[in-house]
Amino acid sequence: MGDSNQSISSKSDEFQPVKAETILPTKTVGIECLKEANPETMSPHRNIFKWFARRPTAATRLALLASILPEETTNDELLKLMCIGPNKELNGSISDYVLQKYSTKDDRDGSIEEHFGYEYPHRQVPSKEKLAEFHEELKQQWGGELPTVLDPTSGGGTIPLESLRYGLPTIANELNPVAWLLNKVILDYAPTVGSIESDVKSWMEKIETEVQKELKQYFPERSGIAPDHYYRAYSITCPSCGDRLPISNRWYFNRRREAAIYPVLQEGKLEFQVINPTKTETREGYDPSSGSVSGGDAECPFCGVVTERSQIVDLFSKGEFEFEVCGVRYEKAIGGTRYHAPTEADKEALQKARERVESDLHLSTLLATERYEGYYDRAVPYGITQWRDVYSPRQLLTHAAYLEAFNEVKSDIVAKHSEKEAELILTLLSFISVKLIRRNSRLNPITSDYGSPDNMLGNNNFSFQWHFGESNLMTGTYSYQSEADNVLDSYEETVDYVNHIDDAADVHQGDAGDLPLDDGSIQSVVIDPPYGDNIMYSEIADAFHVWLREYLRDIFADAFSPPETNKTDEAVENPVIVNPKEGQSTAEAARERYEEKMRGIFSEVFRVLQSGGTLTIYFTDKEVNAWDSLTMSIIRSGFIISATHTITSEVPNRIGVQKNASADSTLLLTCRKPKRKPENRTPTLWRDIRHETRSVARQKATELLESDYNLTKTDMIISAFGPTLRVFTQEYPVVDDKDNPVRPKEALTEARAAVTEVIIDHELSGDLETVDSLSTWYILSWLVYESESIPYDEARQLGLGVGVQIDDIKQKTKIWSKSRDDLVVKGQDYRVRDFTAIEAGEKRRKRAYPVNPTDTSFDYDIDAVHAALNVLQTKGSDFAWNWLQDRGLQNSTSFKRTIESLIQVLPEEHPDRELLVNLASGETGELLDIDQETITTSKSKTTGRTTLQDF
Fold first, then answer.
1. How crowded is residue 842: how many other Cβ atoms within 10 Å of its Cβ?
2. Is 550:403 a contact under the CB 8 Å cutoff?
């Protein structure tokens, strides 16, 4: 069985078609992406200094190679070049082989590599002979020269690294200085300087020796055992009783080890014990799963009075709080456990560190620079206004000690090594120290299940934490040595990846909308652009930039002289830096600015590309407005979308992006630069191409459903966006019957509706034509998103597709509620007034429960169904039988269709589903005459998606 994803080839006399404009082995590549996504099997360059949106190597290679190889390249030839498949003769295709191996993965013996019969592709490149053949083939395609590949927003460097590994002239550009420096290491130093491990280790030892002398006094040992890390929290003065009110939203130190923090008052002083809550007697109301803080309010455990959030925020903003040390985890067990209460020596050490920071001139001013308060900043209101505030005094002292020791050896490093060697050594040493801030600041909590400091940027923002983990960087889990091993091992492996390369890539730092390149000098651009408001790269990178500036501003003055990263030229939707026009929201202004920035980047790419050159774009954002902006940017820059492909290239439920706008699949859009920018084209009427946009979307969705690719419904919708955009861009400009411009989002809305129709036909036992629009929206919300929590804009778009304005019905129906940026779909227990409570005369405001089960008729089918479920639950099946008959619901086709559909779409664990099954079976089932096969089919239906756990 081969791959089924394909695109419609765009052939033209203007340029030679490339492989991307034919059928690609996307299913096979998707399997490789899932295999690689485990952190232990990722390309090593990702761990030198972690960056965001780290794309799998397999997807990168596909985008890169398909963009430059001739169209006659077979899929097997392409996969071999990507190092996918075994080194042996096969009876069928490589795709058939990989798919067969994937289907039998659960029955394998040994590792994934042994089962598939070849190494992970990113650990290999073609042989010297194969690369030479590849280069000759490219020269024939590109006029006698190897094509130059450009990534104008190179981020973590995966795209240019793979280009470089294939021996292609490579140019990488990156605005952010932190990411630029990472690119400099993997694309310049690694291939030209090579191995540097022994030198770095030698200088490391000197740094560590000095730091040990400086810091050991601030981390007192216990019974000769060094502390690993600390549970830190806060306290304020309780406005009621005047005692110290401990501030934390959870008291578990390590749930699995049954170690918890227990605050007590001893002789009027706040103390903390480390206890086993299952064995130790505690005061009434103590629950280590929660703390003194709930919803931002703090309840004093000693007097029970609640201090409101606003008052607490005010106290923190004024600095009227104390740092507390609540517990210590040691390197080794002491008396049978590694978790202990703090000693007097611990408290004295903290006080000593604080006095040192306040009295030392350098320490008292270190990082005394104002923090940029960005859109996703949740720390500034709590008084974390300068970068030094991100750290407790001892944390700041610790990081400063490594910086000072680094500065003491810097001049010797410069004197004893060549310029590039010195730059590399200093950069790697800086990376080691600066990476440590992620788990040693006030913004990283303690993980409850493992009792260790979590990543402060785990959610891609700066969030104030009611408790935090503090690491002893001289030893233990997150030590300088362990981080050094990680950085050096990753760098040395990266060197091995490029040791066959003679030349480095050109690495530029600057705005992608203003590249230092000649017109028409590039043959292919492969880009993974920033996605709307998904991640504010510069805001987050500031946490690293301010420290790298202290380490390296004299080495890389242009990049690290500025006090913070460049936010003005960054192509993101940042509401903080826009000035909305009259009548325009900040979100609209941010979207408009993002679109203009992306247009500037694509226009610059258009300029530097030669005629017929290829632009291939990664895109994984699932919000229609983001796609709309991207497409408009492409169109206005002069490009034509010539092909689209979908790859499962992301780990489902990635940390930090579980409920934001990132999808689990990547869409590759291949665009071509025509000889001339299309100008003064006759507009196309929207009504003339509307049917075609729906048709190609349906075709793509049907194709994916008939394949054995277990994509989410959302990813199926994204897959349909590609061919839809191809139709739209080829017909642009598009206008409606009144000559008003039509934007791409109109086509994407049609695509979403068309795919939804296909999903309904495939997944449900019948159509929803008789069901009212609100009930249809409710059913589709569960069908498409398979969760009660849905991104708000997604739910709104789905509503528009079936004629429901979800904001208009929220208060009246209470069928959904808001949770941050998500919409939560509600069940019957939230919406229906309890029948027995009504009989008992219980007074309830009608608007609190919009559905009254004693009513004889209902506005919507979903209201009738929810009411019926409440009656069945509270009054039993006999009463429910009469209740249904009294309202004639046994004769309502739409009522029964709603029940059947909900049984099919609600997950097994949803409380309403069992009630629905009971309603559709037994006595009430006989009355309603609901097809029992619906219940059987839904029970046996498998759901979910392909995940790493499958391996």
1. 10
2. yes
Residue 937 is predicted with a pLDDT of 53
Query: Per-residue confidence at 653, pLDDT binned at 50, 70, 90?
Result: very low
Q: How far apart are CA 646 and CA 721, in angstroms?
A: 10
| Span 303-308, average pLDDT | 94
Sign, CA dihedral 344-350-353-359, equals: negative
Please provide residue 624's backbone torsions phi and psi, each rounded to the nearest 5 degrees: -60, -40
Computed on alpha carbons and rounded to an integer, the radius of gyration of the chain in Å comes to 30
Paired with 275 in beta bridges are 260
Residue 154 CA to residue 60 CA, distance in Å, equals: 12
- List strand residue ranges (DSSP E) for 280-415, in order: 293-294, 297-299, 306-307, 322-334, 337-340, 377-378
Give one DSSP letter per residue of 403-461, joined into a string.
HHHHHHHHHHHHHHS-HHHHHHHHHHHHHHHHHGGGGSSTT--B-TTT-SBPPTTTTSS
Secondary structure (DSSP) of 797-858 = HHHHHHT--HHHHHHHH--EEEETTEEEE--HHHHB--HHHHHTT----GGGS-B-TT-S--
Neighbours of 778 (CB within 10 A): 29
Residue with tokens 């460097």: 157
- How many distinct helices (H) and strands (E) make up the chain? 34, 25
- Average pLDDT of the chain is 89
| Residue in the block written with tokens 């690290």 | 560
Chain centroid to CA 532: how far?
13
Phi, psi of 554 (to 5 degrees): -80, -15
DSSP 619: E
549 has which bridge partners? none
Q: How many Cβ atoms are within 10 Å of 628's Cβ, its own excluded?
A: 20
Other Cβ atoms closer than 10 A to 236: 19
% of the chain with per-residue pLDDT over 70: 92
* Cα 748 from Cα 33, distance rounded (Å): 27
358, containing H or E segment: helix 344-359
Query: What percent helix, strand, coil does the chain show, rounded to 5?
Result: 50, 15, 35
Dist CA 581 CA 572 (whole Å): 18
Using the 8-state DSSP alphabet, how is residue 498 labeled?
A: T
Confidence grade of residue 678 (pLDDT, cut at 50, 70, 90): low
User: What single-letter DSSP state applies at residue 41?
Assistant: G
- The DSSP bridge pattern shows strands 293-294 and 506-509 to be unpaired
Lowest mean pLDDT segment, chosen from 459-463, 700-704, 762-766? 762-766
- Residue 708, pLDDT score: 60
For the segment 138-161, the average pLDDT, to the nearest whole number, is: 96
Cα angle value 356/359/362 (rounded, 5°): 90
Q: How confident is the model at residue 710 (pLDDT cuts 50, 70, 90)?
A: low
> Distance between alpha carbon 805 and the CA centroid of its chain, in Å?
29
In this predicted structure, the answer to whether residue 510 has a pLDDT above a threshold of 70 is yes
Lowest-pLDDT range of 159-163, 472-476, 502-506, 642-646: 642-646
First-to-last C-alpha distance (Å) of the chain = 21
The Cα 618–Cα 604 span in angstroms is: 18
* Inter-residue contact 572 to 52 (CB < 8 Å): no
Comparing CA positions, the residue from 118, 132, 44 lying closest to residue 83 is 118
Structural tokens at position 315: 């106290």
Give the count of beta carbons closer than 10 Å to the beta carbon of residue 638.
Answer: 19
pLDDT recorded at residue 883: 96
**In angstroms, rounded to a whole number, what is the distance separating the alpha carbons of residues 41 and 35?**
8
**Separation in Å, CA 171 to CA 105, 132, 160, 163, 174:** 39, 21, 7, 9, 10
Cα separations in angstroms, 821 against 259, 789, 950: 34, 10, 30
CA 276/CA 262 separation, integer angstroms: 9
- Record the tokens describing residue 811, joined without a space: 């208060």
Bigger pLDDT: 451 or 947? 451
Q: Kindly report the pTM of this predicted structure.
A: 0.83
283-304 tens-digit pLDDT:
988 999 999 999 899 999 999 9
